[in-house]
Task: structure prediction
Amino acid sequence: MATVHTFGRDLRFHVHVHVLCTEGGVRSDGMWQPVKIFPASQYRRLWQYYLLKELRKALKGDRSAAWRIGRLYKKYPTGFIVNVMSRYRNGRKAAAYCCRYTGRPPISEKRIVDYDGKFVTISYTDYRDNQDKTLRLPARQFLLRLFAHVWPRYMRDVRYYGLYQPTRRVEHVEDAVRASKYHDQVRPVPALSRRERMIQALGEIELRCLQCGSYVILDQIKYAGRRNEKKAKGPPNIDAGQLSLSV
Result:
């Protein structure tokens, strides 16, 4: 699983990819083949080669881009930076990694330490020397840095590969179950619909009526019509609300 980040800790444009992978894979005979060695020095060259290769293909005919790509090979003869992290001891820690990086905004609110109406001060840890630092920016410049990392609507920043690739999950699920020491625990759980997720989430919350204070039970969910649906003539339907509650 890979997710793209365009921001650095100081909100500068710093494109990098976070990748979570398994220590091995399923062979053609259905057996699990462990892989324990991940040579970062080789990955540096591979990452550089495949990235620049695809850029050349996408920018074919652009002489300026071809020149810049050629310069990058000379500027970084040992390849682009690749950090290989240690393995996670269990699935819970791996899931925490996924949640942290796939849904991470460019900056958290707690890192905004001061705003005086004109300037914004943020805190960050400089990865070059691992020192805690602060950065004071004019409010306009801070917003421009922040908005530079907002993804276009519907654009995906998370991709899945191998056994996790959507088109392969069903095809290889039985091989993964046989090869894994966790067996049926790796079998995908049927996805809940949006309605079922809302009922499950709201069903665990104690809701009270705003008028009488009595406890409210979630009875059913109704969705409002989509914007592209034709509106019915006459008075609005009072049952078109999103939630239906009963006391």
Notes: The chain has a mean pLDDT of 83. The longest helix spans residues 40-58.
